[in-house]
Amino acid sequence: MLGRAPQDTPGSIKTYLLLALIVLFSAFPIYWMFVIATSTDEALTKTPPAVVPGNQFFVNLHEVFTMQDVYFAASLINSLIVSSVVTLSMLFFCSLAGFAFAKLRFRGSNALMLFVVLTLTVPSQLGIVALYIVMGKLGWNGTLLAVIAPNLVTAFGVFYMRQFILNAVPDELIESGRMDGATTMRLYWSLVIPAIRPALAVLGLLTFVATWNDFQWPLITLNGSDFPTSMVAISDLASGNYVIYRRVLAGAFVATLPLLVLLGIGGRQIVRGIMEGAVKA
Asked: What is the pTM (predicted TM-score) of this model?
């Protein structure tokens, strides 16, 4: 005899309602940003506030992309270049370093890993002056190299990959590969990389989003240059004695779209990677 399908209890219905409210509350700023981006200047002064999109979106976009000294179209390309290069570099160097810390035995590995973790406790703001001086000595200030170079590898990425590799790659698999004559790089490429793809997806998505949204350091090093990133370009839209918010929010909405698409495509990978790491731990 077939059992009846489980039915929603009052508790589960309340949970779904609560989650729906949280989603609506979280998504409303993005929706309202789109409303203002499609409206005229009067939409900000309406009482009650406007909640229905207008028909001025392409007009506002045209103004954003044709404004002098903003270079908004170039800023989107620059952000794509910086985010892509940093993400690829992070995936390679962090996974390689994580593999070394997790599976290779060398003197001082634990002390070095402890030092890497301790760097996470140091606020990034403390090193900005020194970093700016170093980039100036190299002649990179005002170029995309100054934004890319400091972010090629991070302590968080190394620690995250080490913890995942410790549980995802058995020691016996590494030893078996060595007995077959595989080199360390062959072990890394043929055994480790396939086993940590969920973790690579999570780290890649988080890195791309964080790099795309980075504002403080690009603003400092790219100040006054012709190579702004999208966040710096948006700040330029908001500068001046009189801020036209429909332009600012139109630019912000366009700059947010790639992240929404990326998270929509890779959101399941983030959940899968986190869940697999939790189960393995």
From this structure: 0.86
